Here is the input.
Amino acid sequence: MSDARDPLRARLALATGRSAGRLSQALGKGSGSMIGGRLALRVDPQVLRAVAGDRRSVLVTGTNGKSTVTALVAAAITPGGAVVSNTTGANMTDGIVTALSADRTSALAALEVDEVYLEPVARGTRPKAVVVLNSSREYTRGVSLKSTLEHWRRTAAALPDDCVAIVNVDDPLVSWAFETAPRRIGVSGGLYWRGDALICPACGSVQDFTDDSWSCPGCRRSRPEPDWKVVPDGDGWAVEHAGERTRIEVTVPGRTGPVGGAFALAAADALGVDVAEAAERVSAVADVDGRYAPYRLGDHAARLLMLKNPAGWAEAIDVAVSTDRPLVVAVDPFGPKDTATMWEAPFQRLAGERVAVTGGRTADAVAILDAAGADVVEAPDIESAVRAHAPGEVMVACNYPAFRRISKQFRGGTH
Amino acid sequence: MSSALTVATLFPLATVAAADEANASALVRRGAARDLSVETVTVDRADSFVDADVYLVGGTGRGGVAALVEALTSTDLAARVSDGAVLLAVDAGLDAIARSWVDPSGARHQGLGLAPVDIHAAPEVTGTVVTRPDASLDLPALIGWEANDLRTVREDGVRALFTLEVGAGNRTDDAVGGAAEGVLAGSVLGTRLHGPLLALNPELADLVLARATHRSEPWPALESPAIERARRERIAEVRRESPKADWRSRLPGPVAARLRR
Here is the structure.
């Protein structure tokens, strides 16, 4: 949508983008969620600023968990007004332009941002809050972790004075990259993958890690005290902040759910939304893109997790171990290096445990799990893989194509 | 355990990750099966450099090569390698240890000169590669990945690490029966093949361990059926998708080499 207040060039850019998006849809080339934004940006690089307007935005970035936390943030801030969000996961500048130009009226925005696009998106949207979840190496993009962190540090230093950086203080890399931010709030967001954070990004010393903290013997940096903390609360979880304890119910398994909830509450608080009200909205999120709701299979319940890098696999392994749930690994073909990164994940934590394997890349997964000492069972399909375990809840860790296939299958039939 | 080895991974954050770090744990596993106790260390700053028996340096991404050269120059790597420590340099790591390399703008820079190769620009090639078995190194057909826009020219008389059944390799057109890939010079192994190379190809891990322990006789046979099956499936898939490479591979080597031109 164009707006009469837009500069002429932005209006032209948006009109171009709109027709291209429609054309792309009509030709069956996709949802049109990127091409429109891309063309609009080519006509006017400032178009993001025009479509963002003066709405109050929360940006969500990091290597893992962006989509989930963006959905939780979008829910948490709804008491503050209507929210626009790039729910399709198109998280680069062009996808965000498309999402914002499709809804010019909502006063609030919850935007998932690819970590490499944080700077242009922050410049264009002038956010009120930036949520930074974690940082580990990305295997598909061709950008080193070092350059991503330097990019973040530059971006953080240039954030508007009224913008709050809401950062995971358990991640030393995130903590360092955002220490230049004008305002910073800490969330204890956990760190499942220390492999990339062993070395202090500031001085190069080997960091000292304890179970829940870190410090650098070289430059004396240490984990800032978190303002928001997830704590066990009876059989569930609560978030502690400023002496208050707020209970949250999230369907996302393991600590990932409540941690995402804590980020969402911190973002809501930064926008002036009542925390208790935000917690109710967060708890009402039943599912994110079919990712977390359990699927029933007779006496079993299957929870799907979608993973794309060693940090993601490490988190899935942690969820399985910490919640004492058995694991199914489902991997399908997805290009030549589809299972390569799994070799780096800490599957040795499952040594001696039964793990069922299914999917088109079964041979790779069996080799990886076998090398880690797991008790591997092969299954011809997802149902038998789940049933290879005792009745009850089973975690199904999938790569991207297996996740698409299995969630579609579950939604279509047995749900 | 009869002896202990140290494996050091050098400056992994300088380059783009390509699952190369699984190589260190592959050496630990294969070492354990060979009655060698293998300890791993990650070095990410020059003054934490350690004396090791095996050095791993690599990852993809030409953006990191200059930083890698600078970091490696201020370590004792060259001295350790001339003392016989094994160096496995992968992709960006191979650029860094070459005599000279080119950055994405085409400018030429000096490398560490630990491998007698010069790197030149070439069209981009990506894909899964299959190597030919090599009795001289006790290697079966291996699987790996390449993704680069570089030509790796060896000094005269220096051997390549692999000959490829499928894949572009060094792009020097000098090998018989397939493309030459990488370089093997003394205790230096250089290759463009990135990813969990040693994890998927335990025989290559054996080669590294043998060089590191100065072992000359072949290792006793050691089956790893799960890995062999994964590799067999992957190789079959590559051959299915590269029919041309497949029929060439059935021809005698010199004929195949002529046809390649």
